[in-house]
Structure formats: C-alpha cells, structure tokens
Amino acid sequence: MDSPDRADFLAGLKPGGKYEGVVGLYRHNVSTDRIGLFDKEIIDALAAAGVKWIAHNGAGYDQIDVLYCKEKDIWVSNTPGAVDDATATTGFYLMISALRCFSRAERTLRAGGWKSTHKPGEAHDLTGRTLAVLGLGGIGLRLAELAHAFPMRIVYHNRRPNPDAPAWCEYFGADRLDEMLAQADVLSVHVPLKDSTVGMVDETMIRKLKRGAVIVNTARGKVIDEPAMIRALEDGHLGAVGLDVFPDEPQVNPRLLDFPNATLLPHMGTETCDSQKKMEIRALSNLRDFLTKGKGFDIIPEFK
Ligand SMILES: O=CC(=O)O
Question: Which residues form the D-isomer specific 2-hydroxyacid dehydrogenase catalytic domain (predicted)?
C-alpha cells in the first residue's frame, strides 16, 4: 500500500528491497491505480520474493491472475459473505429505480421540473414480478431473500443447483436457461468475471428476455456485452437497466448517460462502513490464519 507505483513495488520485492522477507500480503483493488493488475510480472516477483499468500480484500478477484498464482504456489483468499448485504441492497436499489423510473424522475426534479417526464405506463411495482438471478451465490441469494419479501417470484440459473437455495427459488439449469429468460421481468447478474463469463450476457441472451425487461448488474461490467445491451435499450427491447459496474471502470460509455431509463452508480456495491469493516476483518483474518496455522479459510474455489 505504500508503493507509489509498479516500479517501486517491484523494486521493493527484490533482495534488499523494502518488502524483503514478506510471506503474505493484504491486497485491495484500489492498489491497481498505482501498481496495476496482479499479472504474471507481479506474480513472478512475488514468488521470487517468497510470498505464499495473497489475502485479497474483495469478493471478486478478477484483477489477480489466480491460475498463474496457483502455478507459482501462491495461495489466494477473498472475502465472501462480507459483501453480501451491501451488494445485494445496491442491486435492490437499482432494480427498484429501474422498475419505477426513479432515476429519470430525480433528474427531472434536479433540473427544476416535476413529473413532466414521468410516464406511469412505463413504471411497475415489484410485487408479483419475476426476478431471475444469474449466479445464485451469497450476493444473489441475499437479493433473492429481499425480493421474495415483496413478494417477487424468484428463479435462478447456476451451473449446478445451489444447496442453500430455499424452496421458493426455482432452479433452471443450462437446458432450461431460455425458458427462465423468457419469464424474467428482471435479470440480475451475479456471476464472477472469468474467461468463461466474459460477454456471457450477450445479444442472444438479451433477446430471449421479454420486451421491456430490466437488466441489473452489480457483478462486473465485462460479463455483459455492452454494445448488445445498448442496442436493446435503443430499440426498446430492454425497458431499463440498473448498472453499478462497467467494462472499463472508471470510464463509463457516454452513450449510457443518454438513456433516461438507465440508473447508473460508480461501483458502490460494497461502499458502506459496515461492509468495508467486515471485508477488512475477513481479509486480515485469512492472513493471520495463514501466518499462525498455515492456511486461511476463504481459499478461492480455483484452489480447492
Ligand atoms: O466489487 C467488489 C468486490 O468484488 O468485492
């Protein structure tokens, strides 16, 4: 955290450098601004310095080449669970705003107007509508619980059924994915970003949603084919979107800013003091357990 740039970080890992003797490290996504991604160059330097554990503070660890870490015998932990409430409520806010057209209404009010841009025919209650969760892990499940209270109908798609899913969450496997999409009023994206999920929500998937459906994304921007999503907003196939994440953060495609039916947030998913505290404690506990017991408990699935 005290390295101003990548060169300083790499120099610090060399023999006699300021990080000599480090065996485990705590990592936060904000370090990317100065040090860059944890790619092969960084991982080679960490391995040469003798680092054995990266305690990543975050649920998503797509900024770390974890398969290369595995090759180099550097373990990686993340902070599952700690982010669930804050990220699920972010998704919930985006879903309500999208369905009720609240973002457009607020922009009109701030511009000195009142209800001139509001079209009641385009605004919908949540009650009775179907929420499709793409990737029912901790965050998706928390969102499902919140939405179920309205009540919304909850359906989900995972590669395999989640054993923690309550009976009121209907599972749709790969063979029934199209069926699920056709029923969804809202598709909320919760899959991690990996090679296999880049562009997963593509033109074909978007077009299988019913006309007027809403997409919410609190996972990672690259999971959605952004040009395909924009085309669907342009021709009205999508009724609205609620986005907390973008493919090239902190850049936001200016085209998205033009849509009155897009609620946009600057990656606020875990931006609460409660969540940040839980995440820090969880990441540091993993590091402590590695140092005292040889292993942290939140080892990422790739290592299991
Ligand atoms: O985006 C936030 C996280 O991955 O924890």
Answer: 38-294
